[in-house]
């Protein structure tokens, strides 16, 4: 088991990483001061596996439980789902003396977190992430929100949970593709922050892909430490937090060009990291050997590394639409060697050239 503090003054909380920790959810919610009705927001896929265990744990700790479901899928991360959740919170009598439990992957976590941030101007919430991506990334740091027809995550709030409870055993039911997609974010932390973690990923591929619990705990623990440190120094993304977007500039573009159907997020980020490594080499920040190691690691974890076919103008528009862009140039995160990041600014046209997508 590991317990990591996220130090954010009055918004501080702990991340608990443990096998079988769902059973202790109720007690841990009590320990962090939760009371009243526990509104468990999830989806049918996750509820089928873990709804009962979560309900039993909360009831055993004396909470009344209201189970609320949204449909499964990114396409439901929208205002219609949010409004239904508000209806259900109202019907269950959830008020400021109650709390929300977000049980699921990043979609449920983001929507349930935003519901908690906005219902009655904010009620406490607890994250119980059940995908690897949610366990190493989205459940930590307080970004909550929904998509808008104009783009992903356009409506949202920074709203920190009171507790993040990670039960690594929940990954046993996750499909391999989603698991590997989460590994892309894990690899990202190694590339931009920690060359020893990168080497750990190189050395332990077989065990990690076999989901050996001790290795899962190790990679989740190391990822959460790295993410928490960034969030602690820039909670509301006024600057530094943007480094977490390594691989995401091209990643978001390919994700959006595939209509959010062809590639899942982590796969798009995997390709985006290969391109970011190439940009870094072209800028003299890393060697060709570093690019080869990054490419090889991503590929050996079964993630895509080749750029999908694209229309040049559409790709340029899509890269330019990245919401972190300012004026003509946009913030682009590079790797210095392996284990360090560097923030750069480029136009989309320059990025196409530097990444080798355009000769
Ligand atoms: P997801 O939430 O759609 O989950 C993927 C699939 O796995 C879903 O079908 C889900 O029902 C299923 N699932 C979840 N847990 C399971 C389990 N234990 N067993 C079996 N099936 C399970 O996708 P995701 O990759 O977890 O999250 C992607 C979302 O996260 C995107 O909307 C993205 O914008 C968001 N995100 C947010 C942040 C943040 O900081 N808030 C960071 C990164 C990504
Ligand atoms: N996933 C990016 C962030 O949390 O800032």
Secondary-structure blueprint:
Layout: E1 2-6, E2 13-18, H1 25-31, E3 37-42, H2 44-60, E4 64-69, H3 79-91, E5 99-104, H4 106-118, E6 125-129, H5 132-138, E7 143-148, E8 151-158, E9 163-167, H6 176-193, H7 195-203, H8 205-209, H9 213-233, H10 248-257, H11 265-282, H12 288-300, H13 312-320, E10 325-326, E11 329-336, E12 340-346, H14 348-354
Parallel strand pairs: 2-9, 3-4, 3-5, 5-6, 6-9
Antiparallel strand pairs: 1-2, 7-8, 10-11, 11-12
Helix pairs in contact: 1-2, 3-4, 5-6, 5-9, 6-7, 6-9, 6-11, 10-11, 10-13, 11-12
The structure holds nicotinamide-adenine-dinucleotide (NAD) and glycine.
Structure description:
There is one protein chain. This protein has 359 residues and is an alpha/beta fold. The chain folds into 2 domains: 2-172, Rossmann fold (3-Layer(aba) Sandwich); 176-354, Dehydroquinate synthase-like - alpha domain (Dehydroquinate synthase-like, alpha domain). Helix content is 47%, strand content 19%. The chain is built from 14 helices and 12 strands. The chain has helices spanning 25-31, 44-60, 79-91, 106-118, 132-138, 176-193, 195-203, 205-209, 213-233, 248-257, 265-282, 288-300, 312-320, 348-354, and strands at 2-6, 13-18, 37-42, 64-69, 99-104, 125-129, 143-148, 151-158, 163-167, 325-326, 329-336, 340-346. The strands form 3 sheets. Strands 1-2-9-6-5-3-4 form a 7-stranded mixed beta sheet, sandwiched between helices. Strand 11 and strand 12 (340-346) form a beta hairpin. Helix 1 packs across helix 2, helix 5 (132-138) packs parallel to helix 6 (176-193) and helix 6 (176-193) runs parallel beside helix 11. It is globular, with a radius of gyration of 20 Å. Residues 137, 141, 143, 241, 244 line the site of glycine.
């Amino acid at each position: 088991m590991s317990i990591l503090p996220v130090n954010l003054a009055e918004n501080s909380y702990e991340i608990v990483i443990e096998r079988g920790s769902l059973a202790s959810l109720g007690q841990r919610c009590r320990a962090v001061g939760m009371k009243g009705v526990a509104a468990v927001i999830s989806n049918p896929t996750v509820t089928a596996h873990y709804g009962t265990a979560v309900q039993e744990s909360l009831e055993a700790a004396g909470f009344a439980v209201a189970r609320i479901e949204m449909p499964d899928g990114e396409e439901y991360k929208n205002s219609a789902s949010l409004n239904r959740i508000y209806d259900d919170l109202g019907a269950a009598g959830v008020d400021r003396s109650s709390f929300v439990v977000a049980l699921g992957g990043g979609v449920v976590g983001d929507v349930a977190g935003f519901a908690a941030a906005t219902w009655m101007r904010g009620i406490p919430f607890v994250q119980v992430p059940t995908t690897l991506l949610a366990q190493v990334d989205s459940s930590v740091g307080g970004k909550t929100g929904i998509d808008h027809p104009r783009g992903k995550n356009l409506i949202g709030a920074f709203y920190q949970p009171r507790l993040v409870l990670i039960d690594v055993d929940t990954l046993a039911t996750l499909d391999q593709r989603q698991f590997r997609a989460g590994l892309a974010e894990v690899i990202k932390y190694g590339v931009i922050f920690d060359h020893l973690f990168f080497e750990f990923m190189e050395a332990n591929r077989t065990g990690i892909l076999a989901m050996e619990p001790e290795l899962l705990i190790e990679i989740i623990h190391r990822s959460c430490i790295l993410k928490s440190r960034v969030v602690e120094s820039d909670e509301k993304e006024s600057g530094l937090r943007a480094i977490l977007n390594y691989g995401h500039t091209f990643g978001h573009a390919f994700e959006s060009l595939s209509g959010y159907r062809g590639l899942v997020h982590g796969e798009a980020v995997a390709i985006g990291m290969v391109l970011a490594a190439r940009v870094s080499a072209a800028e003299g920040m890393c060697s060709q050997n570093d690019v080869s190691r990054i490419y090889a690691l991503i590929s050996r974890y079964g993630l895509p590394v080749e750029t999908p076919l694209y229309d040049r103008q559409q790709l340029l528009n899509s890269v330019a639409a990245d919401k972190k862009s300012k004026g003509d140039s946009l913030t682009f995160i590079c790797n210095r060697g392996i284990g360090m990041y560097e923030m750069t600014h480029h136009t989309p046209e320059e990025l196409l050239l530097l990444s080798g997508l355009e000769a």
